[in-house]
Amino acid sequence: MITRREFVTTLSVALLAPAAWGDSKASKIPLAFSTLGCPEWDWKKILGFASTHGFSAIELRGLMGKLDLPSDPLFAADRIQQTKQQIQAANLKIACVSSSAQMYVEDPTKRAEELSNAKGFVDLAQVLGAPYVRVFGGKADSDKSPVPDDATKARVAAGLRELGKYAGPRDVTVIIESHDHFTASSSLKDVLTQADSEHVGLLWDAHHTFATANEDPEFTVKQLGPWIRHTHLKDSVGSGEDRKYVLTGRGNVPIRRQIEALRSIGYKGFYCFEWEKLWHPDIDDPEIAIADYAHVVGDCLGNAKACGR
């Protein structure tokens, strides 16, 4: 297994070409983290921690453990302008507004609810000036097949297409995450091609395509690169269902190669840390894990001296 020092050193060598990020003094490193990782932090702590640790953006995935973001008081009509001012004052952006909407659903009533939920998140993203809203392909509990069938892929594609039509005029793009039943490049490529919308893209959860679909990052990016708009990075040890999340660089997920693969296609989005603390309360606390990610990945992206330790 690669050591932590080796991870930092090799990442720095690969990523610190002079033209990689332009003038580092003129722009912040494109680093983000998802609020899924800090379910007990209030809004003030989220913004303060992000700013202090050199993040450029945050991905909104619940606040104080509650996932229904459009109904959060922070985003109420009489409060949202203040919220936007606080984001700006912290010199941050909203990288993505992440919903739980699932596009596989077949029942007409439940499907309408999923689409309505996603549209509510699109409306919120528009007001916040966030470029993306995440949705899932999803999978029914009764579906035991290893990959989605053609009918499921067609429903997912149709849902993405409908949301793309809604999101486009609002200057928002809907992105499906590589997750659940949709971790293999072939399945994702099918639905993204069928969706056929410039306002639909991919959130590449690089952990899932590697750990679940057993794909090398170079292969995934070659197949799906034109659709990648946002990404989730995280590390783990083990294999299959026995994987356990660990601090960045201490596992066996090829994060350095994932970043290099993104750079090879001129990726301009955020490198977002998704620490699943809400779902796995036993993993390291966010004060440790998020700060650690900022050091190991963030410093190596833009600070040669830090990477030389």
Molecular structure report:
The chain has 309 residues and is α/β, with parallel strands linked by helices. It has a single domain (4-307), classed as TIM Barrel (Alpha-Beta Barrel). It has helices at 4-15, 43-52, 80-89, 108-128, 150-167, 185-195, 206-211, 217-224, 255-264, 286-302, 304-307, and strands at residues 31-34, 57-60, 93-102, 132-136, 173-177, 200-205, 228-233, 235-237, 244-246, 271-273. The strands form two sheets. Strands 1-2-3-4-5-6-7-10 form an eight-stranded parallel β-barrel, surrounded by four helices. A two-stranded antiparallel sheet has the order 8-9. α2 (43-52) links the parallel β1 and β2 (57-60). α1 packs parallel to α10 (286-302) and α4 (108-128) runs parallel beside α5. The longest helix is centred in the middle third of the chain and has 21 residues, at 108-128. It starts with a helix and ends with a helix. The model is unreliable at 12-27 and 304-309 (pLDDT under 50).
